[in-house]
Amino acid sequence: MMKIPQTRLSAFCNVLSALVPECRLMITDQGWNTLAVDTANVAMVSANLPKAQFDEFTETEKAEIGLDLMKLKDFLKVMDDEKSTITIERKEGRLIMSDGRYTVKHTPLDVQTVRKRPNPPSLSLPAAIDIDAGQLQEAIKAMGVISDKVRLGTCKEGLALDAEGDTDQLHKVLESTGKCQVPDAAVRSLFSLDYLKEIGKAMKGASTCTALLGQDHPIRFDFELDGMECGYFLAPRLEGD
Amino acid sequence: MPWICPYCGTENEQDGRVGRQEPPCRSCKNPRATPEELARIREAKISSIKKDLEELNEVAGKLRDSIEFHASIIAEHQQDLNDARKELGELREDAAPLKEALKRWEDQEVFYEKRDKAFMAEQDPFQTKLPFEVPA
User: Fold this and answer.
1) Average pLDDT for residues A189-196, to the nearest whole number?
2) Which of A78, A140, B69, B121 reaches 20 to 30 Å from A30, CA-CA?
């Protein structure tokens, strides 16, 4: 038996559904955690919802279930009372979710049909910058006006964003709100805005996010959202000379 | 011997010459000047003013040319603006019946396909994948 506030479950679902429609959810006695990669192997999401963030958590056995995030989002649209607490029980291979008004009996996906948990890339990224997540989302949105890709790089003040269209350019510096560990020589990489827009939207509720990046390397965003530890990895675009 | 200061008109009664130094005017402190010296100073000032006047006339000429040049550009753009306004008016006239016709469907929902980011990424030859490998 697990009890969780509707808003927290909804946030968990939004963080994952920004990249993947389904994932393998690991339920342990420590809480929930998942790691999933998108269908094109371009982005990766990790989310850890600790036991302490549940109102009640009595699971003791380790279990892996195939979570259909699109369906879960639809259920949460039905159970939309933000003040409610959702009770989740696992019974005979089904998930029984109830908010007191509605009860959903959901058959999760067969775990074997869902992509396996990927191995996160082991990279040492030289730059780590704390930035305001809301400002990052706003800046990503603005870059979309000019182009469909954006160059993220380091500068003394924090994180620099540059978008270049056929005729126009847009530049923005997001000042660091805390840690600002940048190498002497600036590092930058080019990323698809299609992914960053979705990631930005999912991070909107977080106060601060840490961006870790390198020269033509994936970017990693780490943030805490409503008690969850979340992270995104995004592979860069590498353009030849 | 008393003398009158040519600059301020004050009558200096005493010629208090000390050690061959001409005393200045007691009112404006200008040195005593003879009528010949005064005439020379006046000539110098007149020539300096004439020179300044010539320079100013030259600048005024350049400014007049510049004003004429910019006025011609403005006139040219004004013509373009008038043409564009006329064209806009015509387009608005053309669009008026279309707006009217579209009102029939204004309550109908518009469905559009969401951009598939994974498909776009797969078509992009420069997009790298995860787990990322450092390029050689």
Assistant:
1) 94
2) A78
